[in-house]
Design brief:
five-stranded parallel sheet; alpha/beta; four-stranded parallel sheet; 415 residues; globular
Amino acid sequence: MKKSFFEGKVFFSSIICLCMLSSIFSACKKNQKESEESSSETKYYSQTIVLNKNKAQADKASSNTENAGASGTASSGTSETDSSGTVPASSGSVRASLNSNAVSGSAAASLKAGSAGSANSTPGTEKKYPQKIVALSPAATEILCSIGALDQIAARSDYSDYPPEVLSKPVAGGFDGKNLSVENILSFSPDLVYLTSGMHDYLIPLLRSKKIPYFISMDASVKGILSEIKEIGKITGHEKQAEVKIAEIQAKILELKKYAPKRPKSVYWEIWSPPYMSIGKNSFINELIQIAGGKNIFDDIKEAYPIVSDEQILLRNPDVIIIPDNLQDGIEGIKIRNGWKNIEAVKNGSIYSLNADMISRPSPRITEAIAMIQKCLLADQVAEEVSDQLAAQAENQLLDQAADKPANQADSSAQ
């Protein structure tokens, strides 16, 4: 009898274990599915806008035949694919189709957009692009404007102030959720909302429910920024301009690398204080420092923007300290911090205050930011010709920006 009772307990215990394992397995599958859906959402446009190479080639062949019959010559722009399979939209022969099944619940086919094509375009097959973009970050606005999509911006964030022409655009709200009105965003009837990962994630369910296309910026590196410029170029119909801008940035980076200090200088970069927030390995600013020829003293911390202590900073003893110009302490405040007088950068007067907008935005102006950082590292003024030139360009941009900015926005600063 005792044995049967024991066997019964074992049996029921096994059943309970199996149920628990089943629940855990189901939960894991659910999390995996949610993760996959989230991943697909971040690639909303790269999956929904499809370049139909075969149709483009067919259109080209048809166009050549018609032209040959009319004039005796086959005159049509060539359409070649690059190594990634992208077809340059150079003659209106490339068409775009929107796959509404690419993202579950998406409404790619609901884009209210203009079109780009040529005289040879067949009615109803023109490639469509968004014309009412709401850009919710300064970097997003700068990327759009840098590739010629200013006229496609319906609204911007309160801190989006460059280029100066963008100030004529209405404001959808602040950069973060506390200052951002969802109702205001919807009032612009957007056909694309340009979001920033982490900052604007809470808007995704609403945009999906309203069937409004969106793009999520996830630029944590220079490569990511360039990739985003290319992607936005495709989305907005400015692919060629995007390619030119990317090539320009890459050329400037290569040139700046030639002027990097022979011995990398250690850099402490302060975002704000107190508490002391710096940059870690996964911040794009860490990469800008590396390109300029420096070494971030906290590049061993994976977190993008870690909170650090006095003791850590003093122990790592940076050669250079860089702060944004909107930091409350300022250079003089840094000098009188308790114990900081023994830091190499403080002893040598190597503390620099740089324009917060220029150095904090993951935008096409990263080369100007690198130039400004490099100038801080090249205290001996050796081989600064290119660095000085780009830094001067950055300073001139800021002067023009200040001159064109309305008085009531003069004190605004980017986040």
